[in-house]
Design goal:
- This protein is 50% helix and 16% strand.
- With 254 residues, it is α/β, with parallel strands linked by helices.
- α10 (203-207) links the parallel β7 (191-195) and β8.
- Residues 1-5 have low confidence and may be disordered.
């Protein structure tokens, strides 16, 4: 097994620190402070989604994150000219292109890359030409994974929302879809990430998928931080991820 397949990184999404701030206005709590605390707690990267309606993360947040944090910044963005201009101006380590609907509470599914290649390909190229790693947030479907590789993405982030939301036999089926999708993506030369709806209760099986090298988790960690603090929340998630990855490596964790 390659070293790349052994590594499992944690990207902490700080969007919902900004959600709490914006509920009342003002400056508290500060998502940049949360990003710095996440770094101290063992996060490997910071993820922030600048939505078109600015419902949580703001343009100023992205400016500050670009300047003030030492960890790699993963900018989640819609494929629009406005968001492309912002990404090219701040040059985050990575840009993850996600679908976006104004009326949704959270991202509801993956990009339709197979049906939108002509629209998406220029965005992928422009970001790559600026030295930004491009990720596409997609469902674990063969057509979408192959299309992501065809338009030149370096990374795919597999949408784990369906896996997180259902139980019983269907839960096992969703896990199998993710495992199959990760294997296919890796065979096509894509780096495999995963995220959406992951929690203490369901992360271990995802962490045990050997091709997955990064998990992006936000809402659950911020919510859990209300009860135990952000550092404790992140460290517990890190421990569960290590437990899952230990299955891949044949290592027992305490």
């Amino acid at each position: 097994m390659s070293d790349a397949m052994n590594v499992l990184r944690l990207g902490v999404n700080i969007d919902h620190v900004a959600t709490i701030r914006n509920a009342r206005g003002g400056l508290h709590p500060d998502p940049v402070k949360a990003a710095k605390q996440a770094a101290l707690a063992g996060a490997d990267g910071i993820t922030a989604h600048l939505r078109e309606d600015r419902r949580h993360i703001s343009d100023h947040d992205i400016k500050r994150l670009s300047r003030e944090i030492s960890l790699p910044l993963n900018l989640e963005m819609a494929a629009t000219e406005e968001m492309l201009e912002i990404a090219l101006r701040h040059v985050p380590n990575a840009a993850c292109i996600v679908p976006e609907k104004r009326q949704e509470l959270t991202t509801e599914g993956g990009l339709d890359v197979a049906g939108g290649k002509l629209h998406l390909e220029p965005y992928v190229l422009a970001l790559k030409n600026k030295g930004i790693r491009v990720s596409l947030f997609i469902d674990p479907e063969e057509a979408q994974i192959r299309a992501a590789a065809e338009i030149g993405a370096a990374v795919i982030e597999l949408h784990t929302g369906s896996y997180a939301d259902i139980t019983g036999h269907d839960h096992a089926g969703e896990l199998a879809r993710l495992q199959t999708g990760a294997s296919l993506g890796q065979s096509l030369g894509l780096e495999i990430h995963a995220g959406h709806g992951l929690s203490f209760d369901n992360v271990v099986d995802i962490a045990a998928i050997p091709e997955v090298v990064e998990l992006n988790i936000g809402h659950f960690l911020v919510g859990e931080a209300i009860f135990c603090g952000l550092e404790t929340s992140i460290k517990r998630m890190r421990g569960l991820m290590d437990e899952g990855r230990g299955r891949v490596l044949g290592i027992k964790t305490a």
